[in-house]
């Protein structure tokens, strides 16, 4: 169904270093989670099955353990300006309680990681990819001034509650705003965050996620995460969901996965992430790789990340070659079967000349050429709860 089919196929193979465990490890195993090594941790790839978990999240609410992600705090006078030396976003203009998608870039404009930045009022909260967090921490420590403090919030876990019923589930849980002027959790809109209390326990809640559905991400102390997961799953609308469905959901949503669709050899313009380079930063530059990135914005990229709809039922996997006639024009970076559309879908980087919507291409899979058509992304419309909607 997705890239995680390969994990399932190789789940019993030995790894060089034993994976670490997350605070919910025993919780997952007690609920029948099939545990695999991912990003250096034991994590559940599925519980009842990838298809069931995927469709449940689209119709109800899925609970994902994403505690492998890196949670970081950047604080100190001038923290916004310091972050702008490393990120291409307008961090100084980010209002308290607001979030922004951004990128860590190398000096050539290649993507070292993608991340979320939240202005918490007195600090900035960053969530980085689990497989990259140690590299990111080292990169940030090297790039930030000495008077800026970088804290790894390693005593916190992270849960994602995603799906159309997620907001009702959190409302029923009885969260209380931790600030005097705070809004009820259902009052948050997409890319907004705030602190809450649940039974006296502090939570950091954002209306965001990686599935294309409305939903929330909840930062919680590791000592409280089992109680919170139990309380959430006590609601009939909630099902625990593993990595497999998380991958198929994000693929349907057209969201790139670092290490697959994004790498240091990938620039933000060709990846379709130019929106992460804010208008002010385009004018002033001053971020890593600015010269090459601004040139790509002006001239256009030589290749583009595109969506592909495949004919038939056979999915294309990462690494499959894309052809226009006899000419090789690209490579698949993510692919699988879409439970929602009931057909194979993929993301690929293809030459810009073949990236227009509706372009007919072929993908070589197991020695066969599968017809495919360049498609707009997301494949399944996003359902974010945006301000003013």
TrEMBL record:
What are its E.C. numbers? 2.1.2.10
Keyword Nucleotidyltransferase assigned to the entry: answer is: no
The GO annotation for biological process reads:
glycine catabolic process; methylation
Organism domain of life: Bacteria
According to the UniProt entry, its GO molecular function terms are: aminomethyltransferase activity; methyltransferase activity; transaminase activity
What do the Gene Ontology cellular component annotations say?
glycine cleavage complex
Query: Which Gene3D superfamilies is this protein grouped with?
Result: Aminomethyltransferase beta-barrel domains, Aminomethyltransferase fragment, Probable tRNA modification gtpase trme, domain 1
Assigned protein family: Belongs to the GcvT family.
Q: How is this protein named in the record? A: aminomethyltransferase
Q: Which organism is it from?
A: Caenibius tardaugens NBRC 16725
